[in-house]
Amino acid sequence: MATNDVALNAPSADSSDCTPIPCSSVPADDAELTIPDARDFPLLQLAYQTFLRDLPELLQKYPDQFVAYEGDVQLGIAESPWELETRVAKLPLGTGAVFTIAPESEIDQGAEAGPLF
Known about the structure:
Radius of gyration: 24 Å
Number of helices: 4
Order of helices and strands: HHEEHEH
Helix content: 25-40%
């Protein structure tokens, strides 16, 4: 069969033989957003714990800046999170994070001080 034969025998858009193919087998109403459990990412937990440990010193030297960690290793400090995101994006998923250097009270309230990963 020649290539042109395939094109000639393909159903047209007006053809009744064309049936839409569903995009997903799960109806939209039944789909749930699940947030991964932090316990599934021990290196992220370690990064956060290390960040909290370092936070008093970071606040004195680098307030309102950003810091990146891979586990307990500090990758860098920058004025913009995007400078650090490129480093973190190259790491295996669930191993690195970028944090805003802000008082712990803001972190507990979730005010732009939590991890950016």
